[in-house]
Amino acid sequence: MAKSRREQLEAMLAEDPNDAFLGYGLAMDHVSAGDDAGAIVCFQTLLERNPDYVPGWQQLGQTLARLGREAEARDAWRQGIDQARRQGNDHAAHEMQGMLDALD
Known about the structure:
Layout: H1 5-15, H2 20-32, H3 36-49, H4 54-66, H5 70-86, H6 90-103
Helix pairs in contact: 1-2, 2-3, 3-4, 4-5, 4-6, 5-6
């Protein structure tokens, strides 16, 4: 039987646990399946290994916000904004600032 997308991502991540794209893909697979709690674990692991991966911060914040964990969402977006600004990614920084503002 063929492996599911999640199983394939998990197998590839086992070989290269620092691959940010694979880690993000696995987290987003959890989001797509409606498993926000599982997604949060994956985003946190991704960002521990790749703290400069801006999309991870943005999606972590959104996932936390969906679960009503607004203080944690704010923290994730603030860290993401800092990373985005360091990289000159004004678009991502602006998007996350808008998400922060929407919570207030």
